[in-house]
Amino acid sequence: MFRLGLVINPLAGIGGSVALKGSDGTETVKAAYQLGARPRAQDRTASALEQIQPYRDQIKIYTAANAMGEDLCRQMGFDVELVSHHIPDETSADDTEACVGQLLAQGIDLLLFAGGDGTARNVFHVMQENNQDQMLPVIGVPAGCKIHSAVYAVTPKHAGELLALIIKGRPLAVQEAAVMDIDEAAFRDDRVRAKLYGQLHVPAESQYMQNMKDGGVEHEALVLQDIAAYINETMDDDVLYFMGSGSTPKAIMDELGLESTLLGVDLVENQQLVASDVNEKQILSFLKNGKPAKIILTIIGGQGHLFGRGNQQFSSEVIRKIGKENIIIIATPEKLHALNGQPVRVDTGDEKLNDELCGMIQIITGYDQHTLYKIG
Asked: 282: exposed, middle or buried (C-beta count within 10 Å: 0-12, 13-18, 19+)?
C-alpha cells in the first residue's frame, strides 16, 4: 500500500486573480474575499488527484480534516486517515506546519502539497526541523500566486501523472530542488527580493517538474532583479568587484543602491562604490595593492560578445591579472536563447588569451541558477 501524505493550503492563490500578488496574511485574505476572489487550491489539487484515481485501491492518503485534504479526498473516493481533526475555517501557516509534522510521524512514502512558495517554505521548515529535508521526496501542486520554487510540478495534472507513475512502480530517482520565496509587500511595488531558503528532494523528472522561475514571474526585468539579489547576497568582503557595462550589471548596482555608469566600468568594494567609470589604467592601479578582484559582466545581446565590444577597459592585461576563475558572467535566459546556439565570443586582442578563455562556462541566469554555455 502506497502511503501518500497530502496537505492543502486552502487559501493559496486567493489573491492572484484580484491583483493582490499573493495570499500571505489575514488582511490580504480578507481583501481578496471583499474583491470577490475564491480559493483555487481545491480545484487544482483535484486535477492532480484525478490522475491517481484508477489506483485508489493501492493508496492510503494521510491528511488533515476539512479543506486541508479530507473533504476533497473523501469526495473523490480515496481511503483516508486523518492526522489532525481540528482545523479552523481560515487556516494559517501554523496549521500547514502542524499538519506536515503530523504527516512525517506517519512514515509516509511521499508528501504531496498544494500551495505557493510560502507553503513550500512551511514544508521545508518542518522537514528541516525533523531532519527529513534531505530524505522524504515531495511533489508540489502549483496553486499559489508565487511559484518560484523548483519543488513544484509544471501543472497540477503533471503532479498527478508523475505520482501515478511512481505508484505503478516507476523507479524513483530524486534530486535537490530549491525552495524560494519573495517579499510580497515589495513584489506589490514591482520589486523582487528573492531568497533561497533551502533544498527539498523531488523526483528527478524534468518532463514533469518545473525549473526554478518557470512557474513564477517571467518578466525579464524581474529575472534581472533575481540575478542582482543573488549577486548581492554572495559578494565577498574585501574583494574588488569591477562591474561591467550594460543593463544587466546595472541591475546589481540598483540592488546595492549605488549610482552606476551604464556604458562604463564601476568599482565596488564591501558593497560600496569606490570609483566610477574607470579605465584600464585605473583598473591596473587598483590591482597593484594585491587585493583579490573579480569582474562581473554580461554578454552583449544579439552579438554574443563577452569581451571586446564596449568594455575594452578589460584589456588582456587586466583579465590575466584578475584571472579567468574570477570572471562572473550574468545573463538572462532570454539573452542566451537569442544566441540560437551560437557560442559566446571573446575578442580581447590577444589570441592566446582568447583560446584560454574558450570552453564551457557557468553563467548565472537567475537566483542561484547557473547555466553551462560555451565560449568559442
From this structure: middle
pLDDT tens digits for 155-179? 888 899 999 999 988 878 888 888 9
CATH 3.40.50.10330 fits 2-203, yes or no: yes
Give CA–CA dist 106/103, Å, rounded.
5
Q: Do 237 and 257 meet the contact criterion of CB atoms below 8 Å apart?
A: no
Q: Which residue has the cell 562556462?
A: 361
Q: What is the DSSP string of 103-138?
A: HHTTT-SEEEEEE-HHHHHHHHHHHHHTT-TTTSBE
Q: How far apart are CA 299 and CA 282, in angstroms?
A: 23
Closest-CA residue to 159 (of 4, 52, 40, 22): 52
Q: What pTM does this model have?
A: 0.56
Which secondary-structure segment (H or E) carries 343? none
Q: What gap in Å lies between CA 245 and CA 128, rounded to an integer?
A: 41
